[in-house]
C-alpha cells in the first residue's frame, strides 16, 4: 500500500511538472511583400503581391494551442479588362435617306485593375442605315420675283409679281400677286388738231358765202400725251362777200353768178382704221369736190371733205394699253 501510494504521488508530480511547461503557439513577423502568382476561378492566373508568416514565435508545445489566423496574405492582384457584349443597334439617325445607327460596349467585363491590360478596340460601332429609302421632295414656294413695271406712269395703275411652286402644285396661297402703283395724279395735257381748210356753208349766185373751219380740242390727265383722244370740236365762221370789201384767201376760187360752176361731192371713201384698239379712238373718211369736166373744186361744195367718227369704245382688258396709239 505504501509503494502504490508512492507511485501515485510521483505520477501526480510529473503531471504537474508537464502542465507548467505547456506553451501556446504565436505568429512571427510578416515577411516583406514580394511578387507572386495567384489563380482563382474568376480571374484566372494573375500577378499579385504576397507575404507570409510562421507560427514559431513561439511554436506550440506540450499541448499548447496552434496559431489562429492566415499564414499567407495576397494583395494587389492584377486583372486584365474584358469587353461586354455589343449593345443592340440604336435608332437610325434619319427616317429616309442614308443615315447611321450606333451600338456600344464597355471594358468592364471585368474592369482592368492593378496594372492589368485595358481592352483593345473601339467602344462604339457605326453603320449606314436607310440607304434604299428615298425622301419625298419638299414642296415649297420660290421667292417672289421682282414687281413688273407699273401699268401707268401716273393716275393709279397696277403691277404684279409671280412665284412658282417647286416639286408639286399643292403650295398654299397664290402664284400671282397684284398691287396698286403710281397713285399720284397725272399732269393735265392739252392739244389741238390743226385747223381744217375753210369750207363754204352758204353760197350765193354772186359768190358771197359763209365759210367755216374747225379743229378738235383735247384735254385730259394722261401719263402719255400720245394717248389723247379726239374731244370737243371748235368751229370758226367767217363771211366772204366776194365784192372786194373783205378779202378772203378763197376769193380766187370763186366765180361770179354768170360764171357759176356746178360742183358736187364724190362718194365717201371707206373709213380709215381706228386710231386705238380699245378705250375709244376715232376714224376718218374723205370725199372730194369736183366741178365740170371732173376738175377739182375743193371750195365749190358745201360741207366738209373729212368726217370723224368714234370707234372701239369698249374698255381695254386689264393691264393692257390701247394699241396702236396715235399722236394728235
UniProtKB/TrEMBL annotation:
Sema5A/B-like TSP-1 type domain boundaries: 187-251
Presence of keyword ATP-binding: no
Biological-process GO terms, alphabetical: cell differentiation; nervous system development
InterPro entries in the record: Compl_asym_regulator, Sema5A/B-like_TSP-1, TSP1_rpt, TSP1_rpt_sf
Keywords: Differentiation, Disulfide bond, Glycoprotein, Membrane, Neurogenesis, Repeat, Secreted, Signal, Transmembrane, Transmembrane helix
Compartments in which it is found: Membrane; Secreted
SUPFAM superfamilies linked to this entry: TSP-1 type 1 repeat
Topology of the protein relative to the lipid bilayer: Single-pass membrane protein
GO cellular component entries: membrane
Record-linked Pfam families: TSP1_2, TSP_1
Origin: domain of life: Eukaryota
Chief place where the protein resides: membrane
Name by which UniProt lists this protein: Sema5A/B-like TSP-1 type 1 domain-containing protein
Amino acid at each position: 500500500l505504501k509503494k502504490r501510494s508512492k507511485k501515485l504521488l510521483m505520477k501526480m508530480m510529473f503531471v504537474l511538472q508537464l502542465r507548467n511547461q505547456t506553451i501556446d503557439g504565436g505568429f512571427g513577423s510578416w515577411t516583406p511583400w514580394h511578387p507572386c502568382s495567384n489563380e482563382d476561378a474568376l480571374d484566372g492566373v494573375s500577378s499579385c503581391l504576397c507575404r507570409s508568416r510562421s507560427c514559431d514565435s513561439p511554436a506550440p508545445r506540450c499541448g499548447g494551442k496552434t496559431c489562429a489566423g492566415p499564414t499567407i496574405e495576397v494583395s494587389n492582384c492584377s486583372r486584365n479588362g474584358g469587353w461586354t457584349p455589343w449593345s443592340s443597334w440604336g435608332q437610325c439617325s434619319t427616317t429616309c435617306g442614308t443615315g447611321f445607327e450606333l451600338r456600344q460596349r464597355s471594358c468592364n467585363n471585368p474592369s482592368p485593375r492593378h496594372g492589368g491590360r485595358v481592352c483593345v478596340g473601339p467602344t462604339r460601332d457605326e453603320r449606314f442605315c436607310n440607304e434604299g429609302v428615298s425622301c419625298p421632295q419638299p414642296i415649297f414656294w420660290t421667292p417672289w420675283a421682282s414687281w413688273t413695271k407699273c401699268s401707268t406712269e401716273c393716275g393709279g395703275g397696277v403691277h404684279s409679281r409671280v412665284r412658282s411652286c417647286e416639286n408639286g402644285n399643292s403650295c398654299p396661297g397664290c402664284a400671282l400677286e397684284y398691287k396698286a402703283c403710281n397713285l399720284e395724279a397725272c399732269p393735265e395735257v392739252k392739244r389741238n388738231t390743226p385747223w381744217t381748210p375753210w369750207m363754204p356753208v352758204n353760197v350765193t349766185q354772186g359768190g358771197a358765202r359763209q365759210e367755216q373751219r374747225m379743229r378738235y380740242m383735247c384735254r385730259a390727265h394722261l401719263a402719255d400725251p400720245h394717248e389723247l383722244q379726239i374731244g370737243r370740236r371748235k368751229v370758226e365762221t367767217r363771211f366772204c362777200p366776194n365784192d372786194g370789201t373783205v378779202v378772203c384767201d378763197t376769193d380766187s376760187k370763186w366765180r361770179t353768178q354768170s360764171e357759176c360752176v356746178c360742183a358736187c361731192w364724190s362718194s365717201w371713201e371707206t373709213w380709215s382704221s381706228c386710231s386705238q384698239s380699245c378705250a375709244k379712238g376715232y376714224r376718218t373718211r374723205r370725199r372730194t369736190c369736183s366741178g365740170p369736166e371732173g376738175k377739182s373744186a375743193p371750195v365749190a361744195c358745201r360741207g366738209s371733205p373729212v368726217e370723224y367718227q368714234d370707234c372701239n369704245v369698249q374698255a381695254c382688258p386689264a393691264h393692257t394699253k390701247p394699241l396702236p396709239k396715235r399722236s394728235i
